[in-house]
Amino acid sequence: MTTTPTPRSLGYRLPAEWEPHVATWLSWPHNVNSWPGKFEPVPPIWAELTRVLTDGEEVHIAAGPGPVFEQASTMVGGLKNVTIHPFKTNDAWMRDHGPMFLAGGGLEPAVVDWGYNAWGGKYPPFEDDNKMPANVADFYGMKRFDPGMILEGGSIEPNGKGTLLTTSQCLLNPNRNPEMTKSQIEQKLRDYACIDQVLWLGEPDDGSIPGDDTDAHIDQLARFVSETTVLAAYTEDTDDEAYWLLNKNYEQLKSFRLPDGRPLDVVKFPMPDPQFYDDQRLPMSYANFYIGNKVVVVPTFGDPADQIALGILKEHFPTREIIGIHSVDLVWGLGAFHCITMQQVKV
Fold first, then answer.
1. 249-283, pLDDT tens digit by residue?
2. Mean pLDDT for the stretch of residues 156-173
3. Is 170 known to be catalytic?
């Protein structure tokens, strides 16, 4: 019996987001159903994000064909380091439907093509989004690994040194991989995300922050900013319905240990006060930031905690410019800057 080599067995690794990038990949927004009644302000946010990234890296944008390609070309096509591709998409959440780029230290460039079903089949159709990893791999002529498992990029958070954070609420939800056990899912992560240790936050029925539709993606809750340091979304308001989950996460993170026995350095990362649109609470979280080569792009909400969050990130990324972009309109689509980006790491 022949066993197909996995990325981990071949020597690949999954870098941390702050490691050097070749490029950032985006999918240009066009699905008005993702921002019902409030789509017009959204493409300019993509344009602003593209502009702040291009000084430090290439930006590749899936935007096509037809009017979507034309709008992206008009708004950002004239910027340096921007390439627009006629890859058709259903929606704009590149973190979740895009390829996961691996580093290999001399190995050929490679991506992992996790399956994608729009957060458990919540928002069909998603067939074009599911083709994105193959489109990117074909564009570059990259090796492509297929784990045979549903996984969104926003549901995992690596530290670049073999440890990965995730949540039980998402990865153990039967709307993703109902035929797989926890141990089987963990083995897939070891083999294809090339890690040594999975740290599981929460229990399957713990829920997520109010307004979140991802079944508790980790990029709304806790983010590595170094091998040992995690920023944990937190509120001191015990009356906030998010308090229970965020406090539980914080205490659990403090109990975790890395493979060599070191504890995590867990930093409380503030949450903004609740805001609502159409009587729905928006899933606002500063944890949904994106780390570029020269910048850290952070969603801001016109809240007093904006400056606190930006200051904390500056402490941890002193050589990068910390850029806040107003994102109340963006998060009406139920995601922010980490959700719409995917880093292409240097091999």
1. 999 999 999 999 999 999 999 999 999 999 999 99
2. 98
3. no
Whole-prediction pTM = 0.97
Active-site annotation holder among 132, 142, 339, 340: 339
Question: Both tokens of residue 178?
Answer: 């109902």
CATH node for 7-345: 3.75.10.10
* Residue 239, CA atoms < 13 Å, CB-side half-sphere: 2
Q: What pLDDT was estimated at residue 64?
A: 87
Domain boundaries along the sequence of the chain: 7-345
Cβ 267 vs Cβ 230: under 8 Å: yes
DSSP 284-330: --TT--EE-SSEEEEEE-S-THHHHHHHHHHHH-TTSEEEEEE-HHH
Using CA atoms, how far residue 34 sits from 38, 39, 74, in Å, is 9, 8, 22
Q: Is the peptide bond before 318 cis (omega within 30 degrees of 0)?
A: no
- 89 pLDDT above the threshold of 90: yes
The residues, any chain, with a CB within 8 Å of residue 129's CB and separated by 6 or more, are: 27, 89, 90, 91, 93, 97, 116, 118
Q: How many CB atoms lie within 10 A of CB 13?
A: 21
pLDDT tens-place string over residues 177-199 = 999 999 999 999 999 999 999 99
Tokens linked to 152: 């969104």
